[in-house]
Amino acid sequence: MKLLEIKDLSVQFSVHGKILQAVRGISFDILAGETVGIVGESGSGKSAAVQAITKLSQAEKIGGSALFEGVDLLKEKELKHIRGRKIGMIFQDPMSSLNPTMRIGAQIMEGLLFHKLHPKEEAKRKALEWLKIVGVPDPIARFSQYPHELSGGMRQRVLIAIALACSPKLLIADEPTTALDVTIQAQILDMLKNLQKRFQMSLLLITHDMGVVSEICKKVIVMYAGKIVEMGSVDEILKSPKHPYTQMLLRSRPNLESTKEIPLTSIDGSPPNLLDPPKGCAFKERCPFAANICDKDPPFIKSTACWRVS
Amino acid sequence: MFGFLFKKALILLISLWCVVTGTFFLMHAIPGDPFIGDHAIPEEIMRSLSAYYGLDQPLWVQYTKYLKGLLGGDLGPSIVYQGRTVNQFIADGLPISARLGFQALCVSIPCGVLLGTWAAMKRARWQDNFAMALSTVGVSVPSFVLSSLLQLIFCVKLHLLPVALWGSFEHTILPTIALSALPTAFIARLTRSNMVEVLQQDYIRTALAKGIPLFKVALRHALRNALLPVIAYLGPVASHILTGSFMVEKIFAIPGLGAWMIHSINGRDYPMILGLTVFFSAALMISLFIVDLLYSVLDPRIRHE
Amino acid sequence: MSKNRPAIIAAAILLFLFSMALFAPLFSSYSYSEIHLDLKNAEPGFLFWFGSDELGRDLFTRVWWGARISLFVGITAALIDMGLGVLWGSIAAYLGGKVEETMMRICDILYAIPYLLSVILLTVIRGPGIVTILIAMTFTGWINMARIVRSQILQLKQNDYITAARAIGASPMRIVFRHLIPNAIGPIIAGVTLTIPTAIFTEAFLSFLGLGIQAPAASWGVMVNDGLSAMRYYPWRLFFPALMITLTMFSFNLLGNALRDALDPRLKR
Q: What is the mean pLDDT of chain A?
């Protein structure tokens, strides 16, 4: 059953009077209980796309459709019944995402109370339960503390509790571990994996790290310069990536197990300027296989947007 | 938190001491004899003046006497209104000025905060520009101009309100408006810029992601954080209201402390100027301290230091 | 671009005021102290464009004379404040440690002294006159600027180019004047522009109390004081100087706000 259907989503920002096309027409689906990862470098449009879906974006124009359980999120006037209740979100920076003058417990309870899911006493109990579930030690003490008394990893756990408090069907996690230490990263990712399995919810994970995706997700979407360049199951993509960008992305990861000395590979050049997007395939400047035909937009065939594949 | 408050109290006490000492020595720097000046002073008043100020004694003795007097709450006599002391004038004028100031606060804080919040929510649209233009005008029109204008329009031309003096509630309306224009404008600007900044914060996004609508988020999350600097600003607001009261009271002929201050300045009643200055400074510093106290109670980050 | 419109309007108004202040008294057929007792309290008209006061003096000339005085006092006071504040704030911020703490504590202590009270006091003691007013206004006025400069420099101090300058042996003086202050110039300029209206207001306030400029010289404050008593029957005597004060303060405020927004270092691209 399709939980989320994105069709031809485009997001435009207005920067100093000029138009920046952050997302240039992407389409994908998320089924109930499915874990999907969107991978891409900075500026690929992945965060912009996801923030636009829930209308938490500062974008000038959002085009296309985002059907959630049949309802087009982009055309709805009020998303307050869906946000928090059906779709939970966690963002990148745990240090600044909590209200510094409000106690932790109150911030978790807020969603529960607003969506009228429980009376106050029940909500408090639930909030404490959630603190336990996300692995915050000594939840009763932490409940009455303020954000500045918690560490970064702890705060991210609280934010996850907040996002999941109303038991949403879809959790959107935008670079949830980027701002954390590597050791904490592993813990948080593990927790996300377990929570997803336990509550059977769909997970949409945004990251620039292919490794993270391979850990948690079943399906992966690779974005570049505002478009999807390849899409498929994690196993497929890791074993045989078809798009040159995906191939180079995978190759550029340092191999810690190799005994020989191998130089680090990187992709030459830098992403195109989306204030003036190139015609045709956006990767052609950096692609070793670029040909004249790449000046035309490649069709999306066999889950890849590349002329070589079709 | 107590460390924070203690430091603030200490600084204020030192400032007060500076004001007292400074004023005292400034008085004695005036050429001629400030305590006599050109006033004709009868024998007995001269005696009480001498007794209070120790006029024939060396300077530092006079200074110590004065300090002792202050600590006991005695602010000295007046030369112009002979036989009356500064304390008596304060007793007469303080209730009036305090009421005026309090009314001005009751008007400026809510109006300023509402105006600023509204402007922040409608950021960059015409409501925002209009509100901010209004507040710039509020900051730029001196209170004596505003007072006269109000008098001209509402009293002379429209005969709606009494033009001066003090007595009924109607007498307080125009002075309160005149006095609160500047603080309202300042508070509106400050609230707006804080609200705009706060509304950009990540935790606002988190709250919106829970599904809570914008205006509720603004009230519950944003306002608390945006208002903290506004509270810190209340100290200078008290200062503005105090000095604004000088002009407003004079123009509306209200017998408050501000008017007495002006009288004593015009009449070169130096001991009274000295006494009133010390009183005003002390009153202001107490309000500054109260504001700091409020701020430290409300900001949990300071509470936990 | 509409963000710049208020600033441009403000600048235009100020340009107009400055030019009038400079040229109008020169071309007027009256002097500011010329008395015409038979034409006193005349309404604004052909003879006296802004009317005349109770000694028959031309208000038009007096208003623009007043402009010279008020603008001069306002700008000079603001510049002195800037000089003192920049020196104090930058030295404190650069030296850091105990010295900085002491210097800023002194600021805190002086700051608690009510500004207008100290101004009144000093003027009462010294007697009226331009020098007195300037001293009185700048006595505690520089503190605000010192704080702004200090916080700016504290931030700038962290920058790598400062470390680099130190590493090649540049003297502290040079670092402060050549590197730190020029980079803090944005908020400093904005600060000065916003101090001017306060200074103009303070001068008007002092004159209003009779402590400022003395007759027959005409600052706007003096004229407002004059005009107040005659407000009922000869409102133009109050109207024109009051209008000028308000316009000037308003324009400087607008300009200062726009400058502050435009030069805000946090918005650097």
A: 86
Which of A81, A96, A115 shows the shortest C-beta gap to B202? A96
Residues with Cβ < 8 Å from A233, sequence gap 6 or more? Answer: A218, A219, A220
SS (H, E, C) chain C: CCCHHHHHHHHHHHHHHHHHHHHHHHHCCCCCCCCCHHHCCCCCCCCCCCCECCCCCEHHHHHHHHHHHHHHHHHHHHHHHHHHHHHHHHHHHHHCHHHHHHHHHHHHHHHCCCHHHHHHHHHHHHCCCHHHHHHHHHHHHHHHHHHHHHHHHHHHHCCHHHHHHHHCCCCHHHHHHHHHHHHCHHHHHHHHHHHHHHHHHHHHHHHHCCCCCCCCCCCHHHHHHHHHHCCCCCCHHHHHHHHHHHHHHHHHHHHHHHHHHHCCHHHCC
Q: Domain extents for chain C?
A: 5-19+62-267
DSSP A29: E
Tens digit of each residue's pLDDT, chain B (305 residues): 677 778 888 888 888 888 888 877 777 766 655 555 555 666 776 666 666 666 667 777 777 777 777 777 777 777 667 667 788 888 888 888 888 999 999 999 989 988 888 888 777 778 888 888 888 888 888 888 888 888 878 877 777 777 777 777 777 888 899 999 989 998 898 888 888 888 888 888 899 888 888 878 887 888 777 777 778 778 778 888 887 888 888 888 888 888 888 888 777 777 788 788 888 888 888 888 888 888 777 776 665 54
- B2 inside domain: no
Which of B212, B213, B225 lies closest to A101 in CB terms? B225
Q: Which residues of B touch C205 (CB under 8 A)?
A: 142, 144, 247
The verdict on pTM exceeding 0.95 is no
Span C58-79, pLDDT tens digits = 888 888 888 888 889 889 999 9
* Domain at B133, CATH number: 1.10.3720.10
Residues of chain C contacting residue B284, judged by C-beta atoms under 8 Å apart? 112, 114
Number of structural domains chain B divides into: 1
Residue with token string 């937009």? A297
Instruction: Give the domain extent around B138.
Output: 96-256
Alpha-carbon gap: C177 to the closest alpha carbon of chain B (Å): 31
* Interface check C267 vs B, CB under 8 A: no
Q: Which of C201, C232, C254 sits opposite B156 (nearest CB)?
A: C232
Q: Which of residues 147-206 of A touch B (CB under 8 A)?
A: 148-149, 159, 162-163
Contact in structure between A262 and A255 (CB atoms under 8 Å) = yes
Interchain proximity C124–B268, CB inside 8 Å = yes
What CATH homologous superfamily does C5-19+62-267 map to?
MetI-like (1.10.3720.10)
Chains that touch B (3 or more CB pairs under 8 A): A, C
- Residues of A whose CB is below 8 A from B299: 101
Tell me whether residue B126 is in a domain: yes
The complex scores an ipTM of 0.79
Report if residue B181 sits inside a domain. Answer: yes
> A: neighbours with 3+ CB pairs under 8 Å?
B
> Is residue B275 in some structural domain?
no
Among the partner-chain residues B203, B210, B225, the one whose CB lies closest to the CB of A111 is B210
User: How far, in Å, are B102, B139, C119 from residue C224 at the CA level?
Assistant: 28, 18, 19
Distance, in Å, from the CA atom of B267 to the CA atom of A27, rounded to the nearest integer, reads: 84
Contacts of B221 in chain A (CB under 8 A): 99, 102
Write the residue in B14, B140, B280 that is nearest to C253 by C-beta.
Answer: B140
Q: How far is C147 from chain B (nearest CA, A)?
A: 15
Which of A278, A284, A254 has the alpha carbon at shortest distance from A266?
Answer: A254
Tokens 């500062």 belong to A58
| CA-closest candidate to residue A127, choices A87, A157, A97, A165 | A165
